[in-house]
Amino acid sequence: MWESCSRWPSHLLALTTLGVGLAIAPLFGQAADSQEPPSQALTILADVQQANAVTGVITARGNVQLRYPARQIQATAAQAQYFSREERIVLSGNVYVLQQGNSLRADTVTYLIREGKFVALPAPSRQVESILIIRDDPNQQVFTPVQPE
């Protein structure tokens, strides 16, 4: 199912299949035949995955799970596409992203890996939902008392 990575430009990432999963890791510091992805690996599990050596696009479909421990990101979606040249991932279809307790639900979420930025779009006539954990500093005053003159 996977095309040979030897045809990919050397600056691209090494691909290691893990069952029906995929670990994407830098070429240095990780043996190609290792079954354990490095801590900075981004792992994608899905029912079906395809890689196109010409375009550098990996497409995962069906029960997609994404794990990126280095940035504490977990996500689920119907489909994921990894665009290796642009270093971005497009998740689509009932997307749920969880990062450090914060969550995001949308129809489509694009994750710009280099920037660490999410861009979420809703389905027609719907909205994007974010739930953010706000950590209050008990020593920080919310209101500054005004002294009477």
Description of the structure:
With 149 residues, the protein is mainly beta. It is built from no helices and ten strands. Strands 1, 2, 3, 4, 5, 6, 7, 8, 9 and 10 form a ten-stranded antiparallel sheet that branches. Strand 4 and strand 5 form a beta hairpin. The chain is elongated and about 75 Å long. The N and C termini lie far apart (77 Å).
Q: Please state the overall shape, judged from the principal axes of the Cα atoms.
A: elongated
Class of secondary structure makeup: mainly beta
**Count of helical regions:** 0
**Rg over CA atoms:** 19 Å
Number of strands: 10
Q: Could you estimate the helical fraction of the residues in percent?
A: under 10%
Give the strand content: over 45%
| First-residue to last-residue Cα separation | 77 Å
Main sheet attributes: strand count, strand direction, barrel closure: 10 strands, antiparallel
Question: What sequence of helices (H) and strands (E) makes up the elements?
Answer: EEEEEEEEEE
Low-confidence stretches: 1-32
Let me know the average pLDDT: 78
For this entry, give a set of tags.
about 150 residues, mainly beta, 10-stranded antiparallel sheet, elongated, disordered N terminus
Secondary-structure topology with pairs:
Elements: E1 14-18, E2 21-25, E3 42-45, E4 48-52, E5 57-68, E6 73-83, E7 88-99, E8 102-112, E9 117-121, E10 129-131
Antiparallel strand pairs: 1-2, 2-3, 3-5, 4-5, 5-6, 6-7, 7-8, 8-9, 8-10
